[in-house]
Amino acid sequence: MSKILIVMSAADVWERTDGSAYPTGYWAEELAAPHEKFTAAGFTVDFASPGGVLQPLDAHSANPEVAGPECTHYVEHAERALREFGPLLKLDEVAADDYVAVVLPGGHGPVVDLYQDADLGRLLVEADAAGKVIGAVCHGPAGLLSAVGADGGWVFAGRRMAAFTDEEEELFGTAENAPWLLASTLRDRGALHSGGPAYQAYTVRDRNLFTGQNPASSAPMAEAIVAALTEEE
């Protein structure tokens, strides 16, 4: 049975430029919606993180006023999926050859650790070189920054992608005192970033790279990935 790897951040705190510590964790919808779509389509899903550390749930993603009325379903699904999977795989022990796709959900964690994680970078470089599907949603595209080739260049420079926009960061109240803003940084590194209306579903496909702008984009991105993988079979 074909397997998909979901790579989570291990960060539970986002250090701010004013010295404050912002609690973070995985965003329930961004983990649960893809997992739900992948398993319903018959794929096996593994979870990995730096050191195999299980990141906590971002409390905002369990708040209906922030995450919408379906958040309870996503929280329950995510917690059940992680519990049933058991200890997360250690990122330095996984190989791209074992998976048909690598997917990066968000929460603010990826801008803390995954963006500079060498093991993730190795995995993504190998996956992209093999033409495997790579997905990232919301702050997950920060993890793409880790993919540096042998020539020192960013593997995803010149690629079209979506990610949590600077506007959305401002609306969420986390732009001020952020060490860096994701969409601006992706563009500075050479990504062809585009965005849709704030908090509305918006996805972009560039060959084997599938990206989504925000939590609402999680399910549509996963559906596009399933469709692409199904076509390949």
Question: How are the SSEs ordered, and which strands pair?
Answer:
Layout (H helix, E strand, L loop, with lengths): L2 E5 L5 E3 L5 E3 L4 H13 L3 E6 L14 H4 L3 H15 L3 E2 L10 E4 L13 H12 L3 E5 L22 E2 L4 H7 L9 H8 L2 E2 L9 E4 L2 E4 L5 H15 L1
Parallel strand pairs: 1-4, 1-6, 4-5, 6-7, 7-11, 8-9
Antiparallel strand pairs: 2-3, 10-11
Helix pairs in contact: 1-3, 1-7
Protein name: DJ-1/PfpI domain-containing protein
InterPro entries: Class_I_gatase-like, DJ-1/PfpI, Prot/Nucl_acid_deglycase
Organism: Lentzea cavernae
Structural key phrases:
single chain, 233 residues, Rossmann fold, two-stranded antiparallel sheet, 11 strands, Class_I_gatase-like, Prot/Nucl_acid_deglycase, DJ-1/PfpI domain-containing protein
What does this structure look like?
- This protein has 233 residues and is an alpha/beta fold.
- The protein has one domain: Rossmann fold (3-Layer(aba) Sandwich).
- It has 7 helices and 11 strands.
- It has helices at residues 28-40, 64-67, 71-85, 118-129, 166-172, 182-189, 218-232, and strands at 3-7, 13-15, 21-23, 44-49, 89-90, 101-104, 133-137, 160-161, 192-193, 203-206, 209-212.
- The strands form 3 sheets. The protein has a 7-stranded mixed beta sheet with strand order 5-4-1-6-7-11-10, with helices on both faces. A two-stranded antiparallel ribbon has the order 2-3. A two-stranded parallel sheet has the order 8-9.
- α1 packs across α3 and α1 (28-40) runs parallel beside α7.
- The longest helix is centred in the middle third of the chain and has 15 residues, at 71-85.
- The mean pLDDT is 97.
